[in-house]
Write a structure and sequence with these properties.
The protein is α/β, with parallel strands linked by helices and 189 residues long. It has helices spanning 2-11, 32-46, 62-72, 131-142, 161-167, and strands at residues 13-15, 19-21, 53-57, 76-82, 91-98, 103-110, 119-127, 146-156, 172-180, 187-188. The structure holds guanosine-5'-monophosphate. Its EC number is 2.4.2.22.
Length: 189
């Protein structure tokens, strides 16, 4: 997506450890028009995939996920992150290691908002090592539902995530694919 690439070039800040900060349009302040275009693009890519629900993880996945859901006319649920949790029977729970926070958290989705017959499109802001997407995929499978595909706003293609998701047979569509962040600059695939 050309508009997204331009935003990354103009506003992205490269931090140590291969982290791209895009808090002016995605991770803190949100650009609604860009999110609308992102939602339209994901909807176009996955229109024929029989999607019944969108799933993301709080908090930065919510904006692109809700606009994709709006375009596809389906509900959106976001997995919640908590540090520790007493087991609750009405929740699906998986452990997910966070790339940016460098800690493991439990992510949960209420059983009320994920039914066995569903086809779920996973949307997330970034793909690095694939932990967040794989955690969501495990939750979807726990429910007896199916992963319809994975839509990523910014993929860091120099990390292992894409390979892991493809290995498991998932369709991955990323709107911007970053080949390198070397020298403090984003280079695209
Ligand atoms: P993964 O689970 O694929 O290793 O990492 C993806 C998750 O970590 C995303 O949900 C995102 O919140 C966060 N993340 C990973 N890399 C970056 C990055 O370079 N910049 C930002 N802002 N978030 C990232």
């Amino acid at each position: 997506m050309e508009l997204l690439k331009q935003k990354i070039i103009q506003e992205g800040i490269v931090l140590d450890g291969g982290v791209l900060k895009v808090d002016s349009f995605l991770n803190h302040q949100v650009d609604p028009e860009l999110m609308m275009e992102i939602g339209r693009t994901f909807a176009r890519l996955f229109r024929d995939s029989g999607v019944t629900r969108i799933m993301t993880i709080e908090s930065s996945g919510i904006a692109p996920a809700v606009l994709t859901a709006l375009e596809l006319g389906v509900p959106m649920v976001f997995a919640r992150k908590r540090k520790s949790l007493t087991l609750q029977e009405d929740l699906y729970t998986e452990k997910v290691y966070s790339f940016t926070k460098r800690e493991e958290s439990e992510v949960t989705v209420s059983k009320k908002f994920l039914a066995p017959a569903e086809r779920v499109l996973i949307i997330d802001d970034f793909l690095a090592n694939g932990e967040a997407a794989l955690g969501m995929a495990r939750i979807i499978r726990q429910a007896g539902a199916e992963v319809a595909g994975i839509g990523i706003v910014i993929e860091k293609s120099f990390q292992a995530g894409r390979g892991k998701l493809l290995e498991q047979g998932y369709r991955v569509e990323s709107l911007a694919r970053i080949a390198s962040l070397e020298g403090g600059k984003a280079a695209f695939v």
